[in-house]
Amino acid sequence: MSDKKLSFSKKFIMINQYKKIITSREYVNLEKWEIPFFDLSKIEESLWYKPYGDSSKDIYKENAIRSSTLNEDIKSKLWTGLVLKNQTGNFNDTFIDNVHANYDNIKDLIITYRKFKGKWTSISDKIKPIKSFFEKNIDPFLCVGHVYILKIGPEGFIKEHRDIPDNYDENIHKNYNTLNTFFCPLNDPVNSYFLLNKKQVDLQTNKVTWFNSSLPHVYFNTSREDKYFLIFTGLARKPWINMTVSNVL
Prior knowledge:
Layout: H1 3-22, E1 27-34, H2 62-65, E2 77-86, H3 106-115, E3 119-120, H4 128-138, E4 142-161, E5 181-185, E6 192-196, E7 199-201, E8 207-211, E9 217-221, E10 227-236, H5 238-245
Antiparallel strand pairs: 1-8, 2-3, 2-4, 4-9, 4-10, 5-8, 5-10, 6-7, 6-9
């Protein structure tokens, strides 16, 4: 067997091992990724935007982005977003193009990496510790497309929904690269609750959690203070797959 064929065979085995690990999990707490603290109260209010559809001024309607919202009559309450990285590089562009593609082979996966490239917005320069952390610690493992911060006010909530595109194949959530959404509480998450697929997820300050956003999820802030969450989406690079298969997570 040639070296080229052997190399492809090793990649095939690695991908299949990765599939088995990932498709059996709804979320994973990533102990090695701890986002640095940043005082978000310093960010002026005018830079916070209503996320994708909850504002009548937003050109992106919620039903278009949330094609499988579980209750269309309920609207999320007291939440805004701060866009650090997106497809256009404009901080007032709140559109999030979630990636739930179905990969049949490694070639398809690599093509998607090349297409899925986000641009840092001008706001990211106001939060340089977080931007620098991504460039040093996360970019080697993930092709990061979107980075944004959500602020949920006292007694606010994000309604139960699924982050899926309009033309969604229900079989995709069984695919090995569906778990491409990450979140991290940036201040003390006490008295706030994140439920994924009807189960409560453990929230840890500054710790990143990797979760399957195609499953139903909802967030409640029952405290009397603002809660901040970093959210980002990314596609696995080869080192990430290697790390996962090696059970380093």
